[in-house]
Amino acid sequence: MNIISDNPLKRVTGGQLPAQHFTAVIAAPFGAMGIRTEAGLVYELVYLPPTFHEKDATDALADRAAKQIGRYLEQPDFRFDLPLAPLGTAFQHKVWKAIAAIPRGEVLTYGQVAKLIGSAPRAVGQACGANWFPLVIPCHRVTAAGGIGGFSHHDEADGFHLRVKRWLLEHEGVAGL
User: Fold this and answer.
1) Domain Methylated-DNA-[protein]-cysteine S-methyltransferase DNA binding, which positions (predicted)?
2) Is residue 139 annotated as a catalytic residue, yes or no?
3) Domain formed by 90-171, architecture
4) pTM confidence score
5) CA angle, residues 115, 105, 85, in degrees to nearest 5
């Protein structure tokens, strides 16, 4: 397993990554989704601001990922079936497994996830922010005890990332955050 600590979502703030970084970019109601594939594996899914333009898939897996993301954006009950690169630490995988078990339309707090895996809420939040595969591993379903919490290592109340989190939760039937 590769241990990579660089957070892909944080790097995208302000649209700094060029479209060439991605093997596909698809439009989304909140902006766009960047897809990066390599050697038959998905290496990264990234929430992108609306300044990014669509990019046709450059390989079959990027096309498959784009179609699956499109299906999720139409139907929140869609289940992903993509080969994910073995990124992250053992602890991050433990958190991501717990997050992946949260049903659509439900949320858990960072503290609840921490209790499930025997950890601390802050560590859970850090693992959520380091998620290379948002939507597939639905870290948007984890919130703070007193509200929406942060998202992708961002916590500006009206910032792009929290707008994405709110859209995803509303799309999945969670209201009031």
Assistant:
1) 90-174
2) yes
3) Orthogonal Bundle (1.10)
4) 0.86
5) 70
